[in-house]
C-alpha cells in the first residue's frame, strides 16, 4: 500500500503569549527566541496512521512531503525516523507568504509527480493558521474524496473505512481509494523515534523539488497571488476590568463572590 | 445582484441553531449593503422557520440531503448560488458538514474560504473577516481574491435574531442532489448527562492547576447546583483527567455561557479562544497574573480547595432562600 503523508513545520504552538510577537507591518509572526519550530502536533498522528496501514498491508511505501523552508527538513526527518521510507521537500522562494490554497495546489502537483498512491494522509489542521482546508483542497484538485478528522482508519476490500469524530459522537464512513484522510488527535499516540531509527533517518536522502519541478508558474506563487488575502495580523489587546475579591480568608472570599453573583442575578 | 447565502444543516429533523446565528450575521451584512439574505435547507418543513429568523428567500432542497456528506451537497449549493446570485456564503463549522463543504465549495469555485471567523463586515461592498490564529495568540483579517467569498463560523459565535413570525419571504425548490462517493455506515452518538456543554448557561471549568483529577467531582457538584455543565482545558484533557468531549478551546468546544467559572485555569490563548464569548467570567486562581484573571469580571486569588467548598455552601444557601 503506497501512502503519501503531508507534514508541516510550524512555530511551537505552546509558545507562551508573553513570548509571542507579530511584525504588524510585515504581517508575520516573529520567531520566538530560543523556541525552535516544531512538527505540527497533528502530523505525527498522520505518519503513525500511515505506518500502521503499511504494516497491516504487509508492504508498500510511505512517502513524506513537506512544503516549507530549508528547516522543514526536520519535520520530514522526524517522519523518516518514525519509519517513513522517503522524503520530499518542496522549497522555492516563490512559496514564501503563500496561503493554504496555493499550498494545496503545490502539494497536489507534487503528489501527481510522485504518481503512485493509494492514500494521502494529513493532520486535521496546522496549529499555526488552524484552517484545516488543505486536505480538502488537495482532494478536490486531484478529483478524489476527502474524509476528515479520523480517529481510526483501516483498509477494507480495497476501500478505506474511517471513524470520524463528530461534535456529538462518531461516524463510520467508507470511501473508495485513492482518497485523502485527515487525522485527528483522537487517533492515539504516535510512536516515538528510537535512536537507531534517528541515525538511519539521517542517512536517508530527502529530495528537493522547486516550483519549476512542479510546473508552477510565477502567477501562482508568492503573497501577491494568494486566494485569501491577508490584510492584517496583530495580537489582540485585552483591557482588564477585573474586580479582585478581597477578604481575610478564602472561605470569606467565596461567600462574597457568591453574594456578588447573586446580586448580579447570575446565579 | 449580490447577496448572502446561509447553508442550513438539518440533524434529527431540526435545523442546527448555528444556521439561525449565521442568519443573524447575514442580516447585519445585509444592513451594510450585502444584498438580500437567502438560505439553503433540505426539507420544506424548515422554510418558514428560516424566514422568521431572517431569510428573505429559502431554497428548499430534497429532505434526503440531510445527513449526507459534503459532496452530495455541492450541486444544490451551486443551484442556490446560481438562482440567488449570492457572492457570500456562510456555513456552520460542523464536523458533520460545514467543515468539509466550505473548502470543497471554495476549491470547486477556485476561491478561498475563511474558516471559524469571529467577525464579519462589509468594506467597499466586499467581505472582510476576522479570525483567531496561532493558537488564539493572534488575529488575522482577510479579504478574498475571488468573486465568491466563503466563511464559516463555529456554533455560538454570532447571535441569532428572535424569531419573527410576521416576516415574509419567498420559498423556492431546488432539485439538484449529488451522489456522494462516501458511504455512511453508522453514526454513534455520545450522550452527555445533564445539560449539553455548548448549550449551558453556566459552565464550570477546570484546568491543570487543579493538580488532581478528583477535583472534577467538586466542579460537577457546583455545575449541578447551577444547572450548568462542566468543561475542561486541553491540558486537563491531555492528562486524561476529563473526557476530550468536554474540552473547551481551539481544538475543542466553543461556549458562550452567561457565566463561566474558571477554576485553576491559567488561560492559555488556545483555551480563551473557546470561551472568550462568555458574558461573565469568574476566575478562581492562585496566580494574580494569570491570563484568566485579567479576562475575568470577578477573581478570587486563593487556593480553590478552600474557596470552592465555601462557595458551593453559600450558593446552596442563597438558592434555598429562593
Fold and architecture overview:
The complex is a heterodimer of chains A (267) and B (322). In chain A, 27% of the residues lie in helices and 29% in strands. The N and C termini of chain A lie far apart (58 Å). Chain A is globular. In chain A, strands 11-10-9-12-8-1-6-7-13 form a 9-stranded mixed β-sheet, sandwiched between helices. Chain A has 6 helices and 15 strands. In chain A, helix 2 (73-82) crosses helix 5 and helix 3 packs across helix 4 (134-142). Chain A is of the alpha/beta class and 267 residues long. With 322 residues, chain B is an alpha/beta fold. In chain B, 29% of the residues lie in helices and 27% in strands. Chain B is built from 9 helices and 18 strands. Chain B has helices at residues 17-34, 47-52, 70-84, 98-108, 216-225, 234-238, 269-275, 291-295, 304-320; strands at 4-7, 10-11, 14-15, 37-42, 57-61, 88-92, 113-114, 119-123, 126-133, 138-144, 149-153, 170-173, 183-189, 202-206, 229-232, 259-263, 280-285, 298-301. The longest helix of chain B has 18 residues, at 17-34. Chain B is elongated. Chains A and B meet through helix 4, strand 9, strand 10, strand 11 and strand 14 of A and helix 4, strand 7, strand 9, strand 10 and strand 13 of B.
Which helices and strands appear, and what pairs or packs with what?
The complex is a heterodimer of chains A (267) and B (322).
Chain A: E1 2-7, E2 9-10, E3 21-23, E4 28-30, E5 38-39, H1 43-57, E6 61-67, H2 73-82, E7 86-90, H3 100-114, E8 119-123, H4 134-142, E9 146-156, E10 159-166, E11 169-176, E12 179-183, H5 195-203, E13 206-209, E14 228-234, E15 243-244, H6 250-263
Parallel strand pairs in A: 1-6, 1-8, 6-7, 7-13, 8-12, 9-12
Antiparallel strand pairs in A: 2-5, 3-4, 9-10, 10-11
Helix pairs in contact in A: 2-5, 3-4
Chain B: E1 4-7, E2 10-11, E3 14-15, H1 17-34, E4 37-42, H2 47-52, E5 57-61, H3 70-84, E6 88-92, H4 98-108, E7 113-114, E8 119-123, E9 126-133, E10 138-144, E11 149-153, E12 170-173, E13 183-189, E14 202-206, H5 216-225, E15 229-232, H6 234-238, E16 259-263, H7 269-275, E17 280-285, H8 291-295, E18 298-301, H9 304-320
Parallel strand pairs in B: 1-4, 1-6, 4-5, 5-12, 6-11, 7-11, 14-15, 14-16, 16-17, 17-18
Antiparallel strand pairs in B: 2-3, 8-9, 9-10
Helix pairs in contact in B: 3-4, 5-9
